[in-house]
Specification:
Structural class: mainly beta
Helix content: 10-25%
Distance between the termini: 13 Å
Strand content: over 45%
Radius of gyration: 22 Å
Number of domains: 1
Number of strands: 10
Largest sheet: 10 strands, antiparallel
Length: 237
């Protein structure tokens, strides 16, 4: 029995040692002078010209050396509500509109290949909030999206560590959409619906830059893990 417990303790200790939290710190994309690769995105539309509609879902992936998603990705936060902050139109129909979009759900995943790599193969943060400020300009009824500027937060909780992520900025700029170009290009992320399912979707795609986020990790102590093992197996010293 004693040898069984010793083997068990060694196995649990090895498992704890192999799990490593992402490195705490501030990270920025290369266009801001940092080490993080910028990205590309797609966004699904429930119907044509679907800006700001409920159910629009995002799929953003890093773009590095002509490869999507090798460093980080954001999957499937979807629009819940949209609030108009400014709607200014002159006598000729020229307008500027600014809205705040609130998203629900989604994950932000960091691959260990990035500068935050602590040892685990990847880190999947559950998003608790994702908010975008959208700026549109144009002449009624047409609008051109100038920018989407996002902030977000999320967490990753495991048996070995707790990590929090705060996204201070991520800017999206549209390249094209299915109303202008019906064929979604292969070198942009797959268009996903709000259920995170791929398929023939209407939508838009473009680039993601100006990325700035911070990670804060707290590693759980080994005594806590040993106490947990003792409770599970009723071991005695």
């Amino acid at each position: 029995m004693k040898w069984t417990m010793i083997v068990l303790v060694i196995a649990v200790t090895a498992a704890v040692a192999s799990a490593q939290a992402p490195l705490s710190g501030a990270y920025m994309s290369t266009d801001l002078g940092g080490d993080v690769s910028p990205g590309r995105y797609s966004k699904s539309w429930p119907q044509s010209f679907g800006y700001g509609q409920g159910g629009n879902a995002l799929h953003i992936q890093s773009w590095k050396e002509n490869t999507l998603g090798s460093e980080w990705s954001i999957r499937c936060p979807h629009v819940m509500t949209s609030t108009v902050l400014l709607d200014s139109t002159d006598a000729d129909g020229n307008h500027v509109r600014i809205a705040r979009q609130y998203y629900s759900g989604g994950t932000l995943t960091l691959d260990r290949a990035g500068p935050w790599g602590g040892g685990d193969p990847s880190y999947a943060f559950e998003l608790h909030s994702y908010i975008e400020i959208v700026t549109l300009v144009g002449n009624d009824p047409a609008s051109l999206v100038i920018s989407y500027d996002a902030t977000a937060s999320g967490s990753l909780i495991t048996a070995e560590y707790i990590a929090q992520i705060t996204l201070y900025s991520l800017s999206r700029n549209e390249v094209d959409n299915t109303d202008n170009e019906p064929h979604h290009p292969a070198d942009f992320p797959v268009i996903l619906n709000l259920f995170c399912e791929p398929g023939p979707q209407l939508g838009t795609w473009g680039n993601a830059t100006g990325i700035h986020f911070e990670i804060s990790s707290s590693v759980l102590t080994e005594p806590s893990t040993w106490g947990m093992v003792k409770n599970l197996y009723h071991a005695t010293d």
